[in-house]
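Could you show me just one protein sequence together with its fold in token form as a worked example?
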Amino acid sequence: MINPEISVITTVLNCKKYIRESIESILSQTFREIEYIIVDDGSDDGTTEIIKEFASADGRIFPIYLGENIGRVSSLNKALNISKGKYIAIQDADDISLNDRLLIQYNFLEKNPEYLLTGSNIHIINETGEIISKPLRPENDNELKFSLLFKCTFANPSIMYRRSVITDHELRYEEEFNHAEDFRLITIINSLGKVHNIKETLILHRRHGENNSIVNFDKLNSGSTVIVKENFFQLGIEISEERALRIRKLFSSKGIDKENVSEDIRYLFLAIKEFQSRYRTVKNREVIRTLKRMLKWLGKKNLLLKPDHLSLYNSILAYYLKETFILKN
């Protein structure tokens, strides 16, 4: 195909157990005008033979076989460099795209030219394909922009973005953010225009012991922490990487640092007020949810013992009530 509408990109290293079902889910999409770039990053478990089998039967597949492992970041960039589609869609080698995924995302971006990127809701499945979780994500641009200050609120394997934003701004996945490269690119695209999350579930995301986010959690967390620090800086607020990490842990329910919780929440509160002064909308439910969680994090038991907690608690409560009133009206 000379001019495909969508370039689907999969990078894979030793995923024999799941790659067949993943590839089939793309080839069976109702949207047919695609090229499917699969980068085999040095697999030695039989994955390569499965890719060759599919490539010989379907001319839309463009395989790249690497003789040695060069890593996900370089593999993604190799695929981007040869992609021709108007849109780029990411497909992880152990995930499943539901049949209308590409069509729904394509139609959204075609009808809404002001949007640069879209994701979707996902269901999380286990190794056998059983649904174990149905998380919901923010949908509209302002709620996503707020959430992206602290975490990658998009499901990475669900994203589709305009290739033009990559070429116009000379963007690529960055090795410095290895294992958080998706969060980094999404954050940059988000800063350049509007983003959206489709309410429908379009992806079955497989969770197992060899997921990148599990195996490389420390590197992912380190890169993400730097991104959060930079996001605060863009709001005019300087924080250390240590504070950024603690704030990320608050959002991911990884624990509260009791010694620093008051100051951490104080900086978070500054970020919320600055964000709202720049991007306020009448329906930013993510801000409301975060304020409510902050009141919980401070803890009622501390209020009588720590005057600084009480003062901060009252300030957040007043702001929360104001924002809740705005939301209802």
Remarks:
- The radius of gyration is 21 Å.
- The domain at 6-215 is CATH 3.90.550.10 (Spore Coat Polysaccharide Biosynthesis Protein SpsA; Chain A).
- Residues 213-217 have pLDDT under 50 and may be disordered.
